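Hello Y.,

Per our agreement to keep a running log of every chain we model this quarter, I'm adding this entry. I've kept the format consistent with earlier entries: sequence first, then predicted structure.
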Amino acid sequence: MSGAGVAASPGRSGPAGGSVPRPALDLTPRGGAAPFLRRTLRQAGLEARVALRNGEQLLLTLVLPVIVLVAAARTTSVDLGEGDRTSLALAGVLAVAVVSTSFTGQAIATGFDRRNGVLRLLATSPLGRGGLLAGKAGAVAVLVAVQVLVLCAVAVACGWRPDALGMLAALPALVLGCAAFTALALLLAGTVRAEATLAAANFVWVLLLAGGGLVLPSPVPALTSALPSGALGTALRSALTEHVVAVGPLLVLLAWAAAAVAASARWFSWE
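Predicted structure for the entry above:
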C-alpha cells in the first residue's frame, strides 16, 4: 500500500450488508470565558482577600476606625453635636471607613497596579475593562460591609443600641458614599503617577478627617455640605440619630458620583 494516512474506522454492517459510517469524533475545544457576573464576582473576591491580608490596608480599614470610634464614644472633651454620643461617633466613623476603603485604599492599590502594568494586562483578559472596574467596586462593597459589621459590634460594646429604621436610613448614604469615593479614587489613580496618588490620597484623607465634616461638625457648614465628605457625614448622622433619610446630602453624593464616573470614563488611563 503506497502513501501514508490515517485508517478510517470500519463502519458497522447495515441491514443490506452495507456499511453504516460512524459519526466523526468532534475534537473542537468547548472552552470559553466564564459569564461576566461570575468573572466579576471572582475578581471582587480576589481583591477583597488581598486587601484583608495586607497589613497596611487592614490598619487603614479596620484598626484606625475602631480606635477612633472607641475614643470618640468614651471621651467627652470633643463636641460631636446634638444627640446620642455613641450614635454620633458611629456615624462619623462609618463615614471615615467609607472614605478609607473607597477612596484612599482603592486609589493607592489602583495607582500601583497601573504603574506595574497589571491594569493593562487584566484589561486584555476575558475579564475586560468593565469587569475589572466592576470587580473593584464589588471588593469595596465587601470591605465596607465587613467594616460596618465590625464597627457596629464595637459600638454595641460601647453602649449603642441599634435601631432598624436608623440602619435602613443609613444604607443609601453608604451606597452613594462608596460610589462617589470609589469613582474619585479611580479618577485620581488613572490620571497621575502612583507615587503622587499615594501622597495625594493620604493627604486628602487627613484633610477630610480633620475638617471635612466626617466625624466632627464643620466650622464652615456651607462649604462642607457641598463636599462628598460633609454630605456623607451629615446623611449618616441624620440616619443614626434621627432615623431619617437626609435627601439633600444624598443628592450631593449622587451628583459627585455621577460627575466622578463621567470624568473617570473620559480621562482614566490604563497605562
